[in-house]
Structures are given as structure tokens and as C-alpha cells.
Amino acid sequence: MATFLYRLGRFSFRRRALVAAVWAAVLVALGLGALTLSGQLSNSVTIPGTESQRAIDQLTEKFPQANAGGATARVIIEAPAGTTVTDAKGKAAVEALAGRLKTAPKVAAVVDPFQARSISPDQRVALAQVSYGAKAYELTDEDRQALLDTADAARAAGFTVEFGGDAVQGVPATGATEGLGVAVAAVVLVITFGSLLAAGIPLLTALIGVGTGMAGIFLASGFLELNSNTPILALMIGLAVGIDYALFIVSRYRHELGIGRDPEEAAGRAAGTAGSAVVFAGLTVIIALAGLTVIGIPFLGQMGVAAAVTVAIAVLIALTLLPAILGFAGSRVAGGRIRLRRKPVETTHGERWARFVGRHRIPVLLVALAGMAVVALPALSMQLGLPNDSTAAPESTQRKAYEIASRSFGEGSNGPLLVVVDVSQTADRQAALGQAAADIQKLPDVAAVTPPRVNQAGDTALLTVIPKSGPSSTQTEDLVAAIRAESGKLDAKLAVTGQTAANIDVSEKLSDAMLPYLALIVGLAFVLLMLVFRSVVVPLKATIGFLGSVAATFGAVVAVFQWGWLTDLLGVSSTGPIMSMLPILLIGVLFGLAMDYQVFLVTRMREEHVHGAEPQEAMVTGFRHGARVVVAAALIMISVFAGFVLAESSLIQSIGFALAFGVLVDAFVVRMTLVPAVMSLLGRGAWWLPKWLDRVLPDVDVEGEKLTKQLNDAPGDDGRELVGASR
User: Fold this and answer.
1) What does the pLDDT look like over 464-478, one tens digit per residue?
2) What residues contact residue 349 under an 8 Å CB cut-off, 6+ apart?
3) Chain centroid to CA 527
């Protein structure tokens, strides 16, 4: 493979105008397609096969008037101090608001607070329920604004009006603040290369790759229902790996220029050596992300595939467009006017650190492992859930509506449960409905059960159950399970749905899928790393180190987003249960990124080992060559991910923080500390591989050893004979 990439790098360098034109055409074509054919992104988080989804399907078939699966809004109207919503002025304001709600775009039904008796005990607050004929993701910004505008008259009269529910939630978007991470990455690149030109090339190729990937995602949204977080995850991962992969190849290109290669030869060798590591590092990320498709959760699978495709584009750009751009820049990439050091030093910081770790490997191992264990402790109390109005920003109308409703009606009013009662096989349907409502009312944590709504056929009814506890509480989870258990005790069949029940089902499904998914990606990547390093011990060590990074990251996420530590410093506006999708998403993404650093750092150690260096010296020399670039790459990834902590969406904030912290721990504690300590401790045993397995495994030559030997043996040491022979 190294030989193929060498030829590809030289071809792209020579035919740089053609390669650049092809990528420009691809970007323009996808961009035009995205502008003309893109569709609406979805906020819905559903999983086919769950009871809540089956209940929605049943209602859609037998009770379409219930608008199951459609968007909903809860409208809170609070009277001014000293007045009530039941006096003449208050009643007129509530009825007028209900009338305006009925005329809002796509609204199917409005439940009047007086008819539903949803008036608070002190008669100061009324709660109106709005049902839409369209799903939440089908609502446009104009539809949501029209809903909010219905409150203008009541607010002008002195009433407080706030809105909750999924109908109010817009599609999360990135802003200028997230670009701060890219700015920090640019500074890191300038410090690393000491050249504005060399620093600008990785940024340019990464932005082209992300632009291509994002355009493809928005184009696909016109034909597929994609989750609104899909492009954001792709943007995060695409930027980070795009910059990193280009950084590794540009660094090798500058090294080859520095030892006297001509630019074309340097580009070929950089693509054949560092490019091989980029391919395998990219494959680990792609495997981890694409693996999300096999766990049976459609929206996560979509996010994984979109991000995996973006990573694949980053790899392709690093292997083709990057050498082409290097062709335009030529040897100027090696120079620079920015001088950050007065004179070169004989011993680098990386080498000094590696020798220190090698001398004190046991204490270093113990301290690093103990530190990770302490940080991981909060993960033992992790509580999973999905976002609701309680986790919205404090100044948002959703959060204000949640707080007023909780104060006036109890927290359970923010998470009503819809119970579908199937009496089609029951002789006395009316009695069965009454018995179902009575039995549910007797269950713990039930505040109220509304009278049943029956379809025209009379075989399906809908009960609304108001819990006493909030939608994210364990008591509400227990109540959903208890209602479902009642189905076996009655003549009627019961099914629980609604946003709260759906969130509980999704969280449970995600939790159940975590361990199988972890086993899948770890198994596949273990085989891949065994191919790369031709060792059983190194992949095992890499995997164990990754598990430590994940545990520590989970602990930090719980401490910040569940316990509320450092929220003011990090700008986190609300705390609560950890997003259900975060752990499994973090496992997939962080595993791929962690293996990046494993590949880039340890391949150089293996290269020294293959060339006959003693184990300790191979570790130190490999670390000296790889540490500076790996540190720069890690800082870039951390900067890009940390920029997303400034986003408005709590999910995006938590993903950005988790990935930034995970890369920090994995790069600096695991790869830069534990790896050299363990490699020094194991010595030659680190490269142990059974002889029978050595014969079976193909030699992928990721270090480019065979390529280097062929090129060095060729006349003139410029590789032209090798290239000519390939034509």
C-alpha cells in the first residue's frame, strides 16, 4: 500500500491542476445540489420496534384524529399579580389566545384550558395543549414564529405567556463562537511549523473536506429523514481529523525537503509513509462510526455514516488534493519567516520526557492510572435521559414554561403519558375502559387520569396520565413500566406512548446497545491494529488505554453536566441527566480518534524496532520523532471540539466537552505517558506475535519500510525507476 500511495502522491503533485479542478468540481456540484435539493432536518428521536413507537403506529391506523406522532406545544398563561385567569379579564384573554392558537399554521387541535380543567389551584395559571398535524421536524421557522406570535396580545394586556413542547424546538445550529476552536488550531499550526504557508495548508484542505461532506449531507437530507445533529457531528469530526491528517503529511513532507529531496519526491515519500498511517488511522475512525449502523438505532446510524463519509473524504483529500497543493507551494512550505526559537536544540522536550518515563516507568504508570480512576469515579452515578424543556437554556421560553407548569401543576404536567387502550377483543368495552382508568389511577406517582377519548369504531381509546414526578425522573420510568405491566391483568391491552415514554424507550435501547457496540468496534479495530503493528500486545494495550480514557471522560461529563461542577466557567446553562446517545456516540468517536494517536506514535517506534534499535532506544527515538506532531494534533482536536462547548444546544455542548476532554486524557495521559511507560516495561515483549499468526497476517507495511528500501536501492535515490516500472 505504501508503494501505491507513493505513486498517488507523485501523480497528484505532477497533475496538480487536474486534481485541484476535480475536487473543485465535486465541491461545486455538491454545493449546488445542497442549495437546490436539501430538505428539512429532523428533531425526532425514535426507534422502530419500541412499544411507544408501536403505540403511535396503532393510533395512526385506528385513531388518526389523535394526531399521534405530531408536534405538540404546551402554552402557559399566567395572570398578573392580584388577578386570576378565571375572572372576566383573565377568561377573555385565555379564550382569545386559544382562538389565535387554532389559526396558527399546521395546528390540528387546541384543548381549551377551561374545558380540560387545566387551571392551577390558585387560579392564576392556565395550561392549553396544542396538537399539530405535522411532525416537529416538518415545522418551519415561520411556523414556530407564528405560534410564538399568538401570545402578543395577551402579553400586551399584562399576562405572562410561555411555550413548551417539541413544536417550539428549532434545529440546533453552530455559530461564530464554534469558530474559535479553528482559530486556536491555526495558532497551534503556526507554532508547530513556524510558517504561515505551511500552517494554512492543513486548514485549507480541512475546510474543503468539511465543505464537501456537509454539502453531501444537506443534499441527502432532501431524500432521507436526517437528524438535526447529523451535520454538526460531521462538522466536529471532519474539521478535527481533516486538520490532523494534513498536519502529519505536511510534517513528513517538510522533513523530506529538509534532508534534500526534491519537492515531487518529498510529496511521494510523505504520502507513502505518513499517508499509510493516515489511511489506517482513518479506517479506525470509519469503522467506529460506521459501526453505529449495526446497533438498530436509525438516527445514530445516520449520524455515524455521515461522519464516517466525512472522515473518508478527509483521508482522500489528504492523499490527493494535499500533494497537489504542495505542488503549487513547492519548497516554500519548508521555509518561513516566523522564528519561534533562536537556535535548534539537540535534545527535544519529547525525548527528555520519554527518557524520564522510561527511567520511572512504574511510578509513572501508578500515578497515571490512579489519576484516571479518580476522575472516572463520578461515572458510577451516571443517569441517562433525553433533552426536554427542563434542560433548555434558563432564558428560553421552554425553560420558563417548564418552571411555571411545575410550580402550578406539578412537574409531571410537563411530561404527560399517553395510554392507548385496545378494547377490540373485549365484550364490555365501556367497563374495560373504566377499569383501566381506575387501576392506573391507583398506581404510585399518578397525579391524574383524564377521561378516555374513544375513536369512531369504539375499539381504541386514549387516556392521558399526568405523573407526579418530572419526565426525567426514575419514578416516571417506574410508572411507565407499571402501566405496561397492568396490560396483563386487564381485558384490555394497554400501551404507553408520548414524548416522555418514547424518551424512556430510546434511553433504554441505547443503554442496552452500548456493550455490544463496544465489543464490535474494539474487536474490529483490534484486528486492524494487529495488522498495522504485527503484535498482539500493542493492540491490547491500546484498547485497555482507550477504555480508561472513556471511563475518565464519562466521569468528567457527569461531574459537569449532571452534578454542575464548573458550569459557570464552561458556560453550561443547565444540568440534568446525561444525554442517552452521548455514551455510545462518545465510545465510537473517541475510539477512532484515540487509535489515530496510537498509530501515528507507535508506528515510528515500530519503525525503529524493525531497523534493529534496542527496545528502550526504539521507544525514545520513536517518541522523539512523533511527539511534537502528536501533541500539535491533539491540541488541534481539543481546540476544535472545545469550541462546540460554546454552542446553545446542551447536547452539542456535552458532545464537544466529552470529545475535547476525551482527546486530552487519551493523548496526554494514555498515549504520551502510559504508552511509553508500558513499551519501556515490556521491552521486546511488546512486539510479540505468535509465529503461526505472523504467517497468516498480510504485511501491510504501514511504516513504508519496503518502499524506503526500494527507493534507496533505486539508481539516484529519487524513485524514478520505481515509478517508471509501474507505468
Assistant:
1) 898 989 888 889 999
2) 627
3) 25
